[in-house]
Amino acid sequence: MTQSRSTTRGITLATLWKDLRLEWRSKDAINSMLFFSLLVVVVFSFSFDPSAEESRQIAGGLIWVAFLFAAVVALNQTWARELRNQVLDAYRVSPAPPNSLFLAKVFGNFIFVIVLEALMTPLFIVFYRLRTIGPAWQLLLVAAVGTWALVVNGTFFAAMSIRTRSREIMLPLLLFPISIPAIVAMVQATTSILNGEGARFWIVLLVTYDLVFTTTCLLLFETVLSAE
Amino acid sequence: MKRAFPILGILTAILLSYALYLALVGAPTEQTMGDVQRIFYYHVPSAWTAFILFFANFGASVYYLIKRCPKADIVALVSAEVGVVFCTVVLVTGPIWARPVWGIWWTWDMRLTSTLVLWLIYVSYLFLRRFSSSGQTPLLAAALAVLGALCVPFVYFSIWFFRTQHPQPVMGGGGSIDPRMLHVLLINWLAFSCFAFLVCWSRYRLETLQREVDEAHAFRSLTDDPRSNR
User: A209: which of A36, B27, B145, B222 is 20 to 30 A away, CA to CA?
Assistant: First the structure.
């Protein structure tokens, strides 16, 4: 048992490290995500032209919509990379536990999206003249659990959508409907914190969502990976 | 089994016409809303039928994931398809009723929103089935169905809290229902369920045939010489 658990951890870390190094050298995902969300920010600010008070009301929605669209860019690349040279098929026949591969991909995407958020948030604050009334540290918590919710489902559905025709368009079609409760919770939590209201309900909802969907994805991933 | 199908068809036709008669003539007219309220006898039974079908889809998908039985996959496909149709009926009849009664076509009320999200989830399920290559479809679809069903309570909770935060301008409270209306409603529900079952059944037979034909084609292309293929 301990043997298999340590192999799982080893393979997870090895895959994660490989993905991070690949990303560090190419910077494909992070660059396209950054530029994409920058465009979203600029386009939104032209379309709404909000005052400081208004932007506090709409910023939660804008931020998360920008991050959601940007995350899809990264998520689409996760598995596409493994299709080249039949790496995914090699994974399928190897005795490595499928969940370690899944976890590595989820952690990798989580890191990418968190880096993106860390770089984009200052820009948001400047462009939209944001000042929070509530405790700002809670926003970090919301960012972490919200991103995890997007990324865990996104990685799972990306693995599904590479098995389909027109795979690029399939991911948002699958991901967005299932993510609606998480998106409502993220946006509401962010808006409540910005306006100095309590966000406890939403954070608890997000954590529950994370737990339920992480467990289910881990249970189902092997099926999806080996589906023939 | 084959004889049961036309018998059920005739029964459903009789039941549907009786239910239509009851809904349009038999049921008492509502005091404040008038005849507009009669759409209720289509709206609510469709909603219940759709929910039952989505539940059937979930059950069949779980069964498929455990047993890998192709019949369960067909049941899941069929119930999702027919469920989406009934859910569409709900989403269309709702605004038709809401316009004269509430004065607006749509409000982001809890029930409306969660039904819409449910509809979105199952439409995406049908998209996945349409776009994935045939061999993998059952497994991928079953996995999505499980995730989608798990999502439903979250949808309900999030929207419940989201919407009760704000004042509700139009939504009336619960209130009680006239027993005669309830009777008509239940008859309609029975008729709609029979109808849904009938449609599912014929769709099931069609899908089974389709798969047999596909298999026969695949088999022939393996065994015959290339020129005699389609």
Answer: A36
Give the pLDDT means over successive 10-residue stretches in chain A (228 positions): 72 88 86 88 80 77 89 87 84 85 92 91 83 81 93 92 82 91 90 84 92 93 81
Run of H or E residues at B93:
helix B70-102
Which of B63, B125, B151, B162 is the mutation pick for testing A, counting most A CBs within 10 A?
B151
| Whole-number pLDDT of residue A157 | 92
Which residue from A26, A186, A24 is spatially nearest to A117, judged by alpha carbons? A186
Contact A220 B121 (CB under 8 A): no
Neighbouring CB atoms inside 10 A of B217's CB total: 12
Q: What is the DSSP letter of A164?
A: B
Displacement of CA A118 from its chain's centroid (Å): 13
Q: Least CB-CB distance to A224: which of B139, B148, B150?
A: B139
Q: CB distance B124–A177 less than 8 Å?
A: yes
Q: How crowded is residue A13: how many other Cβ atoms within 10 Å of its Cβ?
A: 14
A129: domain range? Answer: 2-226
Pick among A176, A217, A223, A225 to test the B interface (most B CBs inside 10 A): A223
Per-domain boundaries in chain B: 38-165+178-199
Calpha distance A183→A146 (Å, rounded): 8
* Amino acid found at B40: F
Q: Does residue B163 carry a pLDDT above 70?
A: no
B116 vs A: CB within 8 A = no
ipTM: 0.85
- Number of folded domains that form chain A: 1
How far is B121 from A138, CA to CA, in rounded Å?
30
Single-letter code of the amino acid located at A11: I
Q: Which residues pair with B34 in a beta bridge?
A: B30
The single-letter code of the amino acid at B52 is I
